[in-house]
Specification:
InterPro entries: DNA_methylase_N4/N6, MeTrfase_CN4_CS, RM_Methyltransferase, SAM-dependent_MTases_sf. There is one protein chain. By secondary structure, the chain is an alpha/beta fold. 43% of the residues lie in helices and 14% in strands. Strand 12 and strand 13 form a beta hairpin. The N terminus is likely disordered.
Length: 469
């Protein structure tokens, strides 16, 4: 574990802290081993759904337990899969989370909503039984429903990524889920429905690597019985890559049943002793929260330049939930770290951060503008975090550094620099190593593994921002 403490080549003239005990505790935590590689992270409802670039739940829990008291407000303004919100809820704090991603909002709410287990089991069994019966007995009616389900562009997307027989079973499941009257129970099963689509292997779609947001379509597709449905000519002369991109269809109903039985075992059954969290649709740059209202912030913003493209994966299940591809594309433009630059309002950056953008501009003007957009968005986000955080409290920001045109964007240093310009102290930046099979940034197979940039792709940075009294 490494900690940068008053040693960065940026503005280090922080004013003395007004709360030495709290500030010292923050520094001590940042200096701890924050890797958590050997610890189980799938407890409670953390394993409900795949989500790219999740930090381990032990990370927010460490700061929540050390820096807050029961009843305190813990905020995550970019909550993603709701890891911080769930940990706050489990610890008896009041979690508040915001996000603009529809799937993130649904998932975070489900993970902290207690349900009656027996009711969920009965409902799940009914869904499976009725969907199975519908596929067997009402195949034609399901096909007619499919024809009316989407606009032309969304229809093309569905046909490209989902085999016809898969579409029939997914339609049967979706129709059964829509019959559920209880909104909380319906949301629980919508998440299970999404889970069988968005997985590391691509779930029941024709995609691979959906959980890593860079899907590739299968080149060869086999039926459940082993018959070749797509790519017979490639199947006859398979190369190693073709073998890798060969997929055997799985029954959505069977996968749904498996996942339902798994998730129900982790279902929160009671809220006794826990404070109901609040989640809402909102942009972290403009939070609908009062000044000085949060006791702790723990969050992980996106990478710059859509390095992890959440919507690219999430639209696979959101389209099945009735959202059009065009509308999802428009929503994607709002995400922090995007590449859409028309009519964007850029912020003036501190000198050192501006120099990083200028370094990228030397080789790629557009990439530099994309990076400037990211640091502008993060300037507004950090400004909001400073506004809503109580004096004498901390904001923990977990980031990874991107690489543009072979150059490190130095995200952790730039965000620390921006935070200081806003008024934060930065007592330290912890460095945690990522498991190779869990990291999200690709490392070149032929690149120099000893280079600074390649090594940083295996690291994540935990920035400790402190708001003085």
């Amino acid at each position: 574990m490494t900690i940068y403490q008053n040693s960065l080549p940026f503005n280090e003239n922080n004013p003395p802290s007004q709360d030495g005990t709290y500030r010292d505790k923050l520094i001590q935590i940042l200096a701890q081993d924050l890797n958590f590689h050997s610890q189980h992270s799938g407890y409670a409802s953390h394993n409900f759904h795949s989500f790219p670039a999740k930090f381990p739940p032990q990370l927010p829990r460490t700061f929540i337990e050390a820096l807050t008291h029961p009843g305190d407000i813990v905020l995550d303004p970019m909550m993603g899969s709701g890891t911080t919100i769930l940990e706050a809820w489990l610890a008896g704090r009041r979690g508040i989370g915001a996000d603009i991603d529809p799937l993130a909002l649904l998932l975070s709410k489900v993970k902290v909503t207690p349900l009656d287990v027996q009711t969920v089991i009965r409902t799940g069994n009914t869904i499976v039984e009725n969907a199975t019966s519908a596929v067997r007995e009402n195949h034609l009616a399901l096909s007619e429903t499919l024809k009316k389900q989407w606009d032309a562009k969304t229809r093309t997307f569905i046909d490209y990524w989902f085999a016809p027989e898969t579409q029939i079973e997914l339609t049967a499941l979706r129709l059964e889920i829509e019959k559920i009257d209880d909104p909380a129970v319906k949301s629980f099963f919508q998440i299970i429905f999404s889970t069988i689509i968005i997985t590391k292997s691509g779930g029941v779609s024709l995609a691979f690597d959906l959980a890593h947001t860079r899907p590739h379509r299968a080149k060869v597709v086999l039926s459940k019985e082993g018959a070749v449905l797509i790519g017979q000519e490639l199947r006859d002369n398979p190369s190693p890559r073709i073998r890798f991109l060969t997929k055997t269809l799985r029954s959505p109903i069977t996968e749904f049943k498996k996942r339902f039985q798994q998730n129900v075992r982790s279902l929160p059954e009671t809220a006794q002793g826990k404070i109901p969290p609040a989640t809402f649709s909102g942009n972290a740059q403009w939070l609908a929260l009062a000044d000085h209202s949060a006791d702790l912030i723990v969050t992980s913003p996106p990478y710059a330049s859509n390095a992890i493209d959440y919507m690219r994966a999430h639209k696979f299940s959101l389209a099945w939930m009735g959202l059009d591809i065009d509308k999802l594309g428009a929503k994607r433009r709002e995400y922090i770290g995007g590449e859409f630059l028309n009519h964007f309002e850029f912020e003036k950056l501190p000198e050192a951060s501006a120099a990083v953008v200028a370094d990228i501009r030397d080789c790629d003007e557009k990439k530099a503008r994309v990076l400037h957009r990211y640091y502008s968005e993060m300037t507004r986000t950090l400004r909001e975090m400073f506004r809503v955080l109580r004096p004498g409290k901390a904001a923990i920001v977990v980031v990874g550094s991107s690489v543009m045109r072979g150059r490190d964007t130095r995200t952790q240093h730039c965000l620390a620099d921006i935070g200081r310009a806003i008024g934060f102290e930065v007592p330290g930046i912890g460095v945690r190593s990522l498991d190779r099979n869990k990291r999200m940034m690709p490392v070149s197979a032929n690149g120099d593994k000893t280079s600074q940039i390649q090594q940083r792709m295996h690291e994540e940075y935990v920035i400790g921002f402190y708001k003085t009294e």
